[in-house]
Amino acid sequence: MNEFMKLLSLSKPVIQAPMAGGPATPPLAAAVSNYGGLGSLASGYLTPETLKRQIEETKQLTSAQFQVNLFVPEKREKVSRKKIEDWQNKIPLSQSAELETDEEQDWNDFYEKIDIVLNSGVKVCSFTFGVPPVDAVKELKKRDCCLIGTAVSVDEAVLLEEKGMDIIVVQGSEAGGHRGAFLHTKGEAAVGLIALIPQAADHVSVPVIAAGGIYDKRGVAASFALGAQGVQLGTAFLACMESGTSAVYKQKLIEAAETDTRLTRLFSGKPARGIVNQWMEDRRIDEDNALPYPLQNTLTKPMRKQAQLEGNPESMSLWCGQGVRAATKQTTVKELMDQLVPAGVIL
Amino acid sequence: MNEFMKLLSLSKPVIQAPMAGGPATPPLAAAVSNYGGLGSLASGYLTPETLKRQIEETKQLTSAQFQVNLFVPEKREKVSRKKIEDWQNKIPLSQSAELETDEEQDWNDFYEKIDIVLNSGVKVCSFTFGVPPVDAVKELKKRDCCLIGTAVSVDEAVLLEEKGMDIIVVQGSEAGGHRGAFLHTKGEAAVGLIALIPQAADHVSVPVIAAGGIYDKRGVAASFALGAQGVQLGTAFLACMESGTSAVYKQKLIEAAETDTRLTRLFSGKPARGIVNQWMEDRRIDEDNALPYPLQNTLTKPMRKQAQLEGNPESMSLWCGQGVRAATKQTTVKELMDQLVPAGVIL
Fold first, then answer.
1. Which residues fall within 8 angstroms of residue A49, CB to CB, at 6 or more apart?
2. What pLDDT is recorded for position A344?
3. Residue B274 belongs to what H/E stretch?
4. Coiled-coil annotation: which residues (chains A, B) (predicted)?
5. What span, in angstroms and rounded, lies between the C-alpha atoms of B270 and A44?
6. CA A33 – CA A17 distance, rounded (Å)
7. 3-state secondary structure of B114
8. Mutation test of the interface with chain A: which of B153, B194, B217, choosing the one with the most A Cβ atoms within 10 A?
């Protein structure tokens, strides 16, 4: 049992990626924790009240540890009225988008969620899109909360360790969904795991966890050979019965090939990897011109919501990593966990 | 010893990537072969006469096997006079570019090089940018020549096996230099090795070799864990004394971080990974508008040549993979090979 597994009392060195926006349900998080891994709730798009309810629900389903993931709020970019109107004309249903909260509201929500974590007894907290502020780190550490940062480069990993993170998830270019980047935010600089893991592991002393494109025991063994102490999987969990993935999304995952995804800013304003669909193709020409996060995300929300209701995969975000052949059929968390780390394997 | 090593009588499962345009010199190829790997000559930009001379020179330096790599000629895209003129105005020195040979000349050169391979006793021949034609495959096989194809996706790997390749190099998104793609030619579809190797290995029965971002024994072990039988390294060999890399290029490699590269079509018309420099930054806006290969390559040739002469890294192509910390200092092929597969390691 390595340092990472000891820190979190895991019997399998597997984190379920905190996939915001639906898939990371309490049943999924609880199932992963029950089978020896670390289940995750994704609070990024949740209200503090919903997060609180999800934590309670998860606690009903497992007595094992699970984590809560938070987005670190960022400085909002100024955008001209004209540019917003241009996009309102391009994005179906965007006129009905609710006006976004502001940066101050983001921080209020952030600290409210930190308080919920502190008061809930949750002992693992992870962060995406940045370094959490000093005061939050201090409070969480006082309660013996283990902190996990997300890095896409060596420099990000080093900074996260300096700022008190106990574990670093290094996210390779293969990963589905949003790049957790904060220093190297351009998608084009995305680094593949076979190159990123050893370079990161050589520059930090805390455990490094590999995320991106891993879908079976070969990816687990490779990650360990490269210097990681665990793996974080997203796409592979999307096809599990316990996930909140819609039927049409699951079907697209099952049909997809490894070359069918690309990084796009067209859904949220931040680069994220998903299966190429009509929305991405139609607006490909505007890729470099997308509004900054969270504005693009806000404006596409009604379109994505409608697509969910209609079961139309062509204008919803189909986040998916390059290890997509994980999802050849719907499976269960138990089957997946057993396949990732077969019984008797010594790590 | 695995099937790949047996096929090529190797004591180390390492191919030196056939880096066209200078670095893959006869001394480099011979050194790699002498230390138990497979050295490579890169005939892509060579005249048949120069290839012949390089083969002779390599034979003087090693009695071990080495390979010759060929570019598979492609159908040339039609381009408007206007677009060419636009680029002539943008590319320094392009007015002095020699007019490119045509497709027929490409094929004449290709077959002339095949004849040179057949008559030289070289017993390993690899291909980039496509599937070699049936008649060439037949002739090479008659002389017991082992054939290596280059794939960036599962579909490409499957097709190459169907067409008679004995070994498939799968090139991950991490790889420096040109993407060897022919079905999935868009750089944005580039797949990381941790996802690509197992998916490819599950779909072909010939040995799979991993290329891209590998720079030390951890990458070798990971590639094997993922299902590869060998590795192909480029960037790591660029920093070796025996390579034909210029001093200024070596210095850039030594200084680069893993996030400093990106895929660009601005040098040749085909996506290739290199260290971002002034030329790539200045013309970033034209990235999607580059001329097709080989036209862009022809027009940038005088600029690149002049940059080499002047030792100016800002307008030469600085091909480099994401495992760039391989090159922290100038090393030798022997040191690199020993570090990749330490004595006593059983593969």
1. none
2. 73
3. strand B272-275
4. none
5. 39
6. 12
7. helix
8. B194
CA nearest neighbour of B100 among B74, B67, B122, B132:
B74
What is d(CA A124, CA A127) in angstroms, rounded to the nearest whole number? 10
Distance from CA of B143 to the nearest CA of A (A): 36
What percentage of residues in chain A have a pLDDT greater than 70? 99
Contacts with B184 from chain A: Cβ below 8 Å: 259
- The single-letter DSSP state of residue B257 is -
- Hey, what are B262's tokens? 């990106």
Contacts B202 to A, Cβ<8 Å:
325
Contact B194 A257 (CB under 8 A): no
> What does each of the 347 residues of chain A score in pLDDT, given as a tens digit?
899 999 999 999 999 999 998 899 999 999 999 999 999 999 999 999 999 999 999 999 999 999 999 999 999 989 999 999 999 999 999 999 986 668 999 999 999 999 999 999 999 999 999 999 999 999 999 999 999 999 999 999 999 999 999 999 999 999 999 999 999 999 998 999 999 999 999 999 999 999 999 999 999 999 999 999 999 999 999 989 999 899 999 999 999 999 999 999 999 999 999 999 999 999 999 999 999 999 999 999 999 999 999 999 999 999 999 999 877 777 899 999 999 998 777 66
Alpha carbon distance, N-terminus to C-terminus of chain A: 6
**Chain A interface, best mutation among B208, B259, B289, by max A CB count within 10 A:** B259
- Going by C-alpha positions, the residue among B216, B255, B187 that lies closest to residue B338 is B216
Please list every residue in chain A whose beta carbon sits closer than 8 Å to the beta carbon of residue B347.
none
Residue of chain A nearest B322, judged by CA positions: A195
Alpha-carbon distance values, A229 to A64, A195, A220, B18, B179 (Å)? 20, 16, 9, 34, 31
Chain B residues near residue A184 by CB distance under 8 angstroms = 259
- Number of Cβ pairs < 8 A linking chain A and chain B: 151
Rounded to whole angstroms, how far apart are CA atoms B84 and B73? 21
Domain map (residue ranges) of chain A: 3-340
pLDDT of residue A100: 64
Local structure of A263: helix, strand or coil: strand
A-chain CB neighbours of B273 within 8 Å are none
Q: Which residues of B touch A322 (CB under 8 A)?
A: 191-192, 195-196
Q: At what angle do helices A154-162 and A193-201 cross, to 10 degrees?
A: 40
**Sequence-separated (6 or more) residues with CB below 8 Å from residue A142:** none
Nearest to A188 among B210, B257, B262 (CB): B262
Across the interface, whether the CB atoms of B193 and A194 are under 8 A apart is answered yes
Q: Which strand ranges, in their side-by-side order, compose the sheet holding A146-151?
A: A14-16, A230-233, A208-211, A167-171, A146-151, A124-128, A66-71, A39-42
Q: Is A259 close to B153, i.e. CB distance below 8 A?
A: yes
Nearest CA in chain A to B203: A325
* pLDDT surpassing 90 at residue B224: yes
Q: If one looks up domain A3-340 in CATH, what number appears?
A: 3.20.20.70
